[in-house]
Amino acid sequence: MRQEPLNGFDRRSLRRARLVVALTCLLGLLACWYALGLARLLSPGGWTPPSADSVRAEAQLASEFHAGPPQLILLATTPDSVDTPQATAAGRGLTRRLAEDRRVVWVNSYWQQPLPSLRTEDRSSALVLIRFRGDEQATRDAAGDIIDRFTGTRGPLRVSASGAAAVMDETEKLSEEGMRYAEFVAVPLVLLILLWVLGSVAAALLPVVVGVVAVAATTAVLRLLSTVTEVSLFALNITTALGFGLAVDFSLLLVSRYREELAGGAGADRALRRTLRGAGRTVVFSAATIAASLCALLLFPLPLLRSLAYGGATVVCASAAGALTVLPALLILLGDRLDCWDVFAGLRRPHRALRSGAWFRLARAVMRRPVLVTVGALALLVLLAAPVLHVRFGMYDDRILPSSSPVAETSQRLRADFGSEWVDAAGVVLPASGAGRSGTVPDPVLDAYARRLALTPGVRRVDARTGTYRDGRRSAAPDASSARFTGPGGTWLSVIPEGNDPLSPQGSRLAAGLRAVPAPGPVLVGGPGARLADTEHALAGRLPLVVGVTVLAAFALLLAFTRSVLIPLKALLLNALGLAATSGVLVAVFQQGHLSPLLGDITAGGITDVVVPSLMFCVTFGLSMDYEVFLLSRIVEEHRRGSDTATAVAIGLQRTGRLFTSAALVFATVTAALALSSLVLLKVIGVGLAFAVLLDCTVIRALLVPAVMRLAGRANWWLPRFGREKDRPVSSGTPVPAALTEDP
After folding, report:
1. Most CB atoms within 10 A, among 187, 303, 537, 692?
2. pLDDT 10s digits, 203-247
3. CA-CA distances (angstroms) from residue 669 to 195, 241, 283, 627, 743?
């Protein structure tokens, strides 16, 4: 005897659904267990290519000369003088204990080597400079331990920490704190939005489940990758936000289409199959487009961007896989309980007919005046993009931290009291292979080279084995401390820049100037300005390739999806305008500080980090294509069913407008929560992504897309003859609405 279906699904479907959910729970728990402690394995660095000359120069300075920029700087202050017997004893004891630590390569302190540059003029403060062994992970662990053990009150001394290692340690702590705070704020807001959009508690929890599965899988993959390559700490924050946002996008699309099929008279089992054939195809194309955009980051040689590509592509695929497997299984298990517990039922308006909805009326109004709408929207985007003309590229340093951070406070004191000598100096290395037979550059040759370096614009002083140089002249003869500039690995010179902002355009130009000076052999230039110059060179050299690959991949996918040439070109052009507008807003807010009275000091030295544009391009380009695919899926479907262009656009916008605006609102909420972090970089990314998706779903999708498609008319559907084939009708249980006459 044939069994009766349960909730519209047969017993075999229910068994399969239970198996899928059980396996997902098991794999999710295993992934969470494996990813425990992930944050400690991730790197807050990765801003410079590992093979860059600046990285090699600093490595050689540390290994061959026990020199180079210190990774940790301890600032010791006293109310009296650092030269009192009590302060001297405490300082020497601190130096001795640090030197005994096996993780430390070298320690230089005022009490070990009483150089005037290691103390303030009033003798109230002195420095202890430390360099560690091992890679970035070992450096961060050692620095964190030393900061915990040696900062605070030490007899007559008050010790605080600064330097790159201290910034890394503080960045990790604030990143974890900001992530917890963002989740605490974003999750309730997202649930409220989903309750309103999806109409029930059961339906609202579906995207959350998919998001948790996607994020758990991604953290496990990042944990695995951290064992074989450098993975950025920021990848965890960004991919978590991206995973929840995309899970909501895909889930909204599938649940809405499922309900639409049910309302059209299809049974539950048939409605689910139709949903996966129609909306499921859209999810696959959307995920492929976003993943392709993020994978383009792999072409950059920066560990930061590559780890974002790993995590981003993983979370996109995991979100799509979860939406196409876990979500259907949950729909089967929920059955007719999908619409239970609608807490906003009393506030909802009655459902309107397709051709009387707000989005349909908006599309028709736009298409009645397409030229006016197009010109107005383009003028707004150009106005928003205008600040890009004043961009100043650099790299974030300790000013990425909030001013209330102890590390940031110490860094500010170092700049004010000690200048740039120990923090911002550039090291110029002449390896032994380029020196004379003895491995050392002859003094006359080195003297002439140091004079040329001292004449480089932006140089305040050059220290070398042969003496100290200013303005091309030797201002001081060699002293006993000059021996530190020579070793078995060759010779090096210390270049002290003017000013104290080497991670700015001036620092990059200084590094280029130093490298252009004729040298007596092969030369390596290190220091902050050189790192910036190397990063800029790496990004600029690969950017055309990245843009080309991203654009070609998106065009090919949209061409296959829409079977049109003009529609993909239109999408690419509008995405470029949206990216330019978003970049302009970021420059205005985070470089020029136009919202500083509201957001506080967020300018981080008045620069735009050179890595941000590349990161924002790939992420926002993919997200914009996500909403484009949502909209085009229904427009193309309606056109293939016989509707004219104006009708197809209006119906497509009516069916998807609420979806992509709701998805954008959820994603903006999740990413804007990153702006609650104390770190400037996370603020930039959070605000930038939130603004980009909101601009995209309003000005671009709701206004420009209908207007431009109305102007293009039949040209929207042009395809070369060799690419034509008979279009198949789209399967749907929804009745075909009466065609509307196109506006003349």
Report:
1. 692
2. 888 988 998 899 899 999 989 888 888 888 778 878 887 888 888
3. 15, 9, 22, 16, 38
